[in-house]
Amino acid sequence: xxxxxxxxxxxxxxxxxxxxxxxxxxxxxxxxxxxxxxxxxxxxxxxxxxxxxxxxxxxxxxxxxxxxxxxxxxxxxxxxxxxxxxxxxxxxxxxxxxxxxxxxxxxxxxxxxxxxxxxxxxxxxxxxxxxxxxxxxxxxxxxxxxxxxxxxxxxxxxxxxxxxxxxxxxxxxxxxxxxxxxxxxxxxxxxxxxxxxxxxxxxxxxxxxxxxxxxxxxxxxxxxxxxxxxxxxxxxxxx
Length: 239
What we know:
- This protein is of the alpha+beta class.
- It has three domains: 3-32; 42-165, CATH 2.40.50.90; 170-235.
- 33% of the residues lie in helices and 26% in strands.
- The chain contains six helices and 15 strands.
- It has a five-stranded mixed beta barrel with strand order 2-3-4-9-8. Strands 14-12-13-15 form a four-stranded mixed beta sheet. Strands 5-11 form a two-stranded antiparallel sheet.
- The model is unreliable at 1-34 (pLDDT under 50).
């Protein structure tokens, strides 16, 4: 082999080796950012979607056994004044997470194919803490796990228990019924295209009333979240 050909081969081998190191470093960084386990458990840095939902490494996790006020929902204080309980719940969850690693033990998946998780940060049970703060209800339709924490919050008149508050499941039901009666063919979910990409808005979304569906731009209505997600659209969530 000539010297020039040998040098070229050597350089090419070194380049491949360096590329392998870079790829390994990237993979190691991704593994550090979040981990997925065969049983559905996830761990990593989390982004808050709303008061009872997280994104952990791209995996949507619904906090099992609790139901927080929707983002657009308001509640009443003891003096009758209104407060943004839905946004405050999301902010409180974000403060609890605060850029730290979240570990979520999977309790299965819901009808929207989200992981149902029992999530913690540094040993603190996030699900229980949100109920304890009065910023989520025990979701007794599906679980009685956090009934004790809800009783404690009610006795302390914490969060939603300081005044009048509608449970989020009734809030969603009422918003859906009103939107369904006005939507084309009763399909009440708005698919919007913006600088944030293709997102869908549920009738209880804070931005629902401002969104206009323009079919000429490829926007559309959906009858269910599952339909929207299967079409490649994502929840507007918390911006």
